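Quick check before the chapter quiz. The format below is the same one you will see on the exam, so make sure you can read both the input and the output lines.
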Amino acid sequence: MLAFWGILAGVFSADWAVKAWAGAALKGQRVWRALPHVLEFRYSENRGMALGFLSGNVLASLVMPIVAVAAWLLVFRKYRPTPFTRAASAMMLGGFAGNFVDRLMLGYVVDMLYFPFLPWFICNVADIAICAGVLMLAVSLLFRPQDWREKNAKDDGPSAP
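Here is the expected output.
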């Protein structure tokens, strides 16, 4: 359980630190090309959700992450967590927390990671952590059935769910 909280806090802290740096170093429309044609740092204020979805709807952008976390809690209380699903969950929740605090405190989410080969996409550390956590859970659902044993199920070997 300590690893769960460590990952969550690490994602949240890294996200906060990079957002603070972006606000200080890039806010005046400065672009820093870390890897030309691959990765640039640009300051952006996203007033919506992913890709600007629900832009300008502050209430929805605050309520939807809470609904997502509630859904996660409802699903995961049924299963015995494994280190893999704990890590995935911690990454997602740390990312949700980072973006939620931005929305709550600033009214927008600070984005700064721009990939020139994806000109419609700009994100932040929290977004990457959320996507990585979701990808890990998808891998878990498809290829790791041991991650999805019900809490009340008896461990009877290979025939157990």
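If your answer matched, good. The radius of gyration is 18 Å.
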